[in-house]
Write a structure and sequence with these properties.
single chain, mainly alpha, three-stranded mixed beta sheet, elongated
């Protein structure tokens, strides 16, 4: 059996991870968009390498789901913010690394 994750009725991922009840797991699009955008903003704002490493997989997965669901992610396209946990001499994460991860993850996440 398959599991379907949907945003506003649109299937954004079917991980086919086994039986479940129910088979459809709806996600509230506007709420998820706000959540995913906050994740992206936080990831892009930090220059702390450990924070980035811990966030990358989760943020990229959430961003792929959000984009597939038609959600806007302004933090992905705009300039990076700043974080109070920055490492001196480090820079905020650019959109390129996250875009690469999103492309890689999208290929591995059948809809």
């Amino acid at each position: 059996m398959s599991q379907y994750l949907t945003i506003d009725g649109h299937c954004v991922w079917n991980p086919a991870n086994g039986p479940g009840d129910p088979d459809d797991h709806p996600i509230d699009g506007p709420v998820f968009a706000e959540f995913a955008d906050a994740l992206v903003a936080g990831y892009r704002a930090t220059s702390h390498p450990i924070s980035r490493a811990l966030l990358e997989g989760f943020v990229a997965t959430a961003a792929v789901l959000a984009r597939r669901g038609g959600c806007a992610l302004p933090a992905l396209d705009g300039p990076a913010g700043t974080s109070t946990r920055d490492i001196p001499g480090g820079g905020a994460a650019g959109p390129d690394r996250l875009a690469e991860l999103m492309a890689e993850y999208a290929r591995a996440m059948p809809a």
